[in-house]
Amino acid sequence: MLGEPVEPLGDKGAIFIPTTLEKTPGMLARQEAATKELHVHANALDSGSYIAPLDPLDVLEFCRPGVQHGVYKNLRLGKYDTHARLDLHRHTVEQARHALWRFAEECRDRAVRCALVTHGKGEGRKHPAVLKSCVNHWLRQLPYVLAFHSAQKHHGGLGATYLLIKKSADARRETGEKIEQAKRHRG
Questions:
Q1: Taking CA atoms, which of 27, 111, 124, 127 is between 20 and 30 Å from 143?
Q2: Structural domain containing residue 140
Q3: β-pairing, 160-165 with 145-150?
Q4: CATH number of the domain residue 139 falls in
């Protein structure tokens, strides 16, 4: 074996694989199914930890450091248009966990800045405010949820929550450009 001369293969028996394959409907369906399966299993919201129970009349409020006071105030007061809504009524805890995660991911991917989640208060139930408690716990786990607050009465009151979702890189760049243009026009 050692010492035997090595011959280059050249073009003999070479197989050429095209770099751009035309995707068949079957390939696209398998790719979509694999992507969905990946997203289902990638749910970052924990389901096993203890979730502190809340009272049905508790106000949900959370704000990450760095969010401007005026932005959070406008969120609390319902001054932002909600461009997406999720209703968790009649969901089990596990169904709500998956639905909330998918909803938040989709909002982030579609550059939705403000959304509304209706979870109900669970008043009059044996275990009140279960979904409300879970939503409060889960939203804190999503790094792109910058803030949330219980909604105004006309949007569902204590049975709903406004979400403020982090801007995409493109949206941040556009805002920076608008600010620069405004400075140039003033100066």
A1: 127
A2: 61-167
A3: antiparallel
A4: 3.30.1370.110
Closest CA to 136 of 39, 55, 70, 42: 55
Domain membership of residue 122 (yes or no) is yes
Model-level pTM?
0.71
Residue 26 lies in a domain: no
The DSSP-derived string for 84-146 is EEEE-TT--HHHHHHHHHHHHHHHHHTT--EEEEE----TTSSSTTHHHHHHHHHHTT-TTEE
Is 16 inside any structural domain?
no
Q: Residues in the chain, how many?
A: 187
Element (H, E) at 73: helix 69-76
Whether residue 98 lies inside any domain: the answer is yes
- The count of domains in the chain is 1
Q: Helix 25-41 crosses helix 93-109 at what angle (to 10 degrees)?
A: 120
Write down the pLDDT at residue 17.
45
The strands making up 145-150's β-sheet, listed across from edge to edge, are 61-63, 145-150, 160-165, 114-118, 84-87
Q: Which of 126, 122, 118, 144 is closest to 45 using CA atoms?
A: 144
**Which one has a higher pLDDT value, 156 or 48?**
156
